[in-house]
Write a structure and sequence with these properties.
Layout: E1 3-7, H1 14-23, E2 27-32, E3 48-51, H2 57-64, E4 69-72, H3 85-104, E5 112-116, H4 147-166, E6 170-175, E7 178-179, H5 190-201, H6 217-223, E8 231-235, E9 242-243, E10 246-247, H7 248-260, E11 268-271, H8 279-290, E12 295-299, E13 304-305, H9 310-316, H10 324-335
Parallel strand pairs: 1-2, 1-4, 2-3, 4-5, 5-6, 6-11, 7-10, 8-12, 9-13
Helix pairs in contact: 1-7, 2-3, 3-4, 5-6, 8-10
Length: about 350
Amino acid sequence: MAKVLVTGAAGQVGSRLVRQLLARDHEVRGLILPDDPARSRLDGLEIEVIAGDLMHPETAEKAVAGVDAVVHTANLVSPLPGMSESQFFDNNVRTTFHMARAAARVADRLQRFVHISSSAVYPNDSQQVKPCYSPIDEAHPLRPRGVYPLSKLIGEHILSATSRETGLPVAFIRPSGIVSGTAVLGRWTVGFVSRMLRAGQASPEGELYMADGTELWHALDAAAESDQQPCAITDTQGRPWMYRLVDARDVAHACVCALESPAAVGEAFNAAAPEPIYYTDAAEALSEAIGMPVVRWQVPVRWVFDLSITKARSLIGYRPRWGIREMIADAIAVQRGESDGMSWE
């Protein structure tokens, strides 16, 4: 048993991680923002909660005092209302820097510092740029595109440099697209596919780009009765699109594995669903759950968003539980008020 600091403890991953740590008899300190709107996610849990902003180094110093390990989940995925792009970037980089420096001062007693990064460091958005190969493993070249991916890669470099300087035992988790609550329900629809085709046509380096200028989404939008309909999309060879996202509970599980396994030190690990998720299968599962007919569609391009989890499985015992049918069933239960979307079981 260890005393573990979880930054961003009220976030979609942090709030689930806290529960998994408690279930494994760890003592937990949760750091949240002052007046955190998601504070209620921690109600009723036997943890120490402290409030503070990691943009201030003294908050990081206070947070690491007396703990045995750190899991750093706190970050922004996009700018908050009224926040500039530079402020957004500065927030993600500076907060990680402050945590790294605070941890460096007590590196001799910290058992582990686990940092949640992102698959965006590769990147894994093939509508923007084709990967060198697929599924993407941890040896894939790192070619971040955009402010958020760049901030995550810089965070990895900050902690790696701190480890070289002080011996801080660090490990990195690179999740695929994270979903929680009901978010998974919208990823297999006509509307989502149409948005991906639009994004792909704006990115000549991606695998959805049509060099002749064809805007493939128009015919799809016209054929569907609703943009909420499940969409079983394939290419003209019959190969289904594939999107291997990850449930937030499985990301939390990956953090626990990295925290507890000696083999995690100095390594990065992908976190994704147990198996690849094909649009043909996901659309059928969604159709069964919501009672809307499937739109079956073909286009001359194929979108693949896939991460290999072989390394995490073999080295740290990562065993994700949430496949597409499990995620959809629980999302419907959340929608009906029958699940809180937190339990990993």
